[in-house]
Amino acid sequence: MIRVVLVGIEGAVNLGVIARTCVNFGVDELYIVKPVASLDEALNYAAKGRGFLENAVVTDSLDEAIKGVDMIVATSDEGYSESDMLRQAVDLSDFAERIFPRTRSVAILFGRESTGLTREEIGRADILVTIPANPAYPVLNVSQAVAVVLWELWKHRGMEAVNVPRKASRDLLGELLSLAVDVSRSVMSTEEKVARSRILWKRMLSKAMLTEKEARVLKYWLQRVRRQLRQDCLHE
């Protein structure tokens, strides 16, 4: 299941074109968070996507827009940054080929035409995906970005292999993240470092595509590490 989430979309033309594109590539759901654009005006540009746009969920809450999916993906044109933990981006083609086919449901976040997604909104995602483009001018119009992302996913949709191990659930991955943060807090000197560690663990766990068995082994290991660290603190 693919859900497109448009955050603060500003242009009615873009919104209409995106709705049409969603129909082109078989998107299941469209959520629109705090739109600036007029939905009534956007209907004029939606063509065969008119009905799809009329059925879109309009909400003031990003929480509502990302609820109930296995993976949350943010998009950005800024690409990979080695120094910024929040921007450890995955190439779109890598995501589409390696991660997407093993994900049952995904929400893909697209930001405002003027400013994109905020750092807080990017931080809500499990993975940050970027579209490689000319470094001299890598910024795509949001409707273009949606089309490129959906086309890339369309090529790999329905290619999920049979007889593959069951993927770890979102709840189990959340437990792993909490354990990893607890361990980080025991060995790191500041909350700022713990926060950076949390982002790193969140990205790693999402990219790893752990099976349920692998996740449970890692959970057991992290629980043992946390227990040992707490015992060491008591004996100091």
From TrEMBL:
Cited PANTHER family: TRNA (CYTIDINE_URIDINE-2'-O-)-METHYLTRANSFERASE TRMJ (PTHR42786:SF2), TRNA/RRNA METHYLTRANSFERASE (PTHR42786)
Organism listed in the record: Desulfurococcus mucosus (strain ATCC 35584 / DSM 2162 / JCM 9187 / O7/1)
Chain ranges of the tRNA/rRNA methyltransferase SpoU type domain: 2-151
GO cellular component: cytosol
Top-level division of the source organism's lineage: Archaea
Record GO terms (molecular function): RNA binding; RNA methyltransferase activity
UniProt similarity note: Belongs to the class IV-like SAM-binding methyltransferase superfamily. RNA methyltransferase TrmH family.
Protein name (database record): tRNA/rRNA methyltransferase (SpoU)
GO biological process terms on file: tRNA nucleoside ribose methylation
InterPro entries in alphabetical order: Alpha/beta_knot_MTases, RNA_MeTrfase_TrmJ/LasT, SpoU_MeTrfase, tRNA_m1G_MTases_N
Keywords of this entry: Methyltransferase, S-adenosyl-L-methionine, Transferase
Gene3D superfamilies: 3.40.1280.10
